[in-house]
Amino acid sequence: MQYSIGQLSEAAGVTVRTLHHYDRTGLLSPSTRTPAGYRRYDDADLARLRQILFYRELGFPLDEIAAILADPDAGVLDHLRARRRQLTEQLERLTHLAALTDRAIEVQRTGVRLTPEERLDVFGDIAFDLSYATEADVRGRDSAGHRTAMARAAAHSKEDWRTLMREAAAWRRDLLAAYDDGLPADGPEAMALAEEQRRHTARWFTPCPPGTHRRIADDFAADPRAFALVVPPPQQRPGLAAYLRTAVHANAARLDAAPETSEGSPDR
After folding, report:
1. What CATH number did the domain enclosing 218 receive?
2. CA 241 – CA 247 distance, rounded (Å)
3. How far is CA 172 from the centre of its chain?
4. 157 domain-assigned
5. HTH merR-type domain: from which residue to which, for each copy (predicted)?
6. What confidence score (pLDDT) does residue 9 get?
7. Of 15, 163, 198, 209, which is least surrounded by CB within 10 A?
8. Residue 123: what are its φ and ψ, rounded to 5°?
């Protein structure tokens, strides 16, 4: 079957301009021409064009496609394997860049005013899933409290964050020691750690009366992203989130039963 350049363009889904370019470079020339000089392609030309488009879809440059088509039995498999390695590397890089972009978006949504260099200096290689902190519809989230926490976080300086992270690391070390030593979650040591974490939250982010702390601890046990904000995944233990939740609830019950104070009073 014979095809004009327009018919071949329509059959293969490419532009006439592309076919002109392929002809000029010698990648795909028409089998024949009419006496008036018009290009005429046959089924073999169409099959070759489809091969070219296949390799183009895989990202091969035109000169490499020309080499493959010039001797299809010489190293085609090697070309394909090499291209697959390149694509795999690109995919890994793009996946990494997408993850970095997602984290940058979430950091911007929190309003935290730290440059990437400052965040690296303060947080090191600790990677938080900040999507939890920026989702307004998280179960049990009080919108006013959430806005307060985000506003206060945005106002923290680099030194504030450095101090905050130092306090959090010391608390986390004591929590892990209590858990690893088998201290009861509703015992005095664990409740003291829960109270320390409640006061830390109130000092740096948002007022945290016992009722609010209960809801936060419930989120710790229910949502891995929430718990990762206080204990990064590499440091977690099976059952640790539930252990902290029990300690928080026991501490909240103790505070509810105690005389009201300005910091420890239950929310009513």
Report:
1. 1.10.490.50
2. 10
3. 25
4. yes
5. 1-71
6. 93
7. 15
8. -95, -15
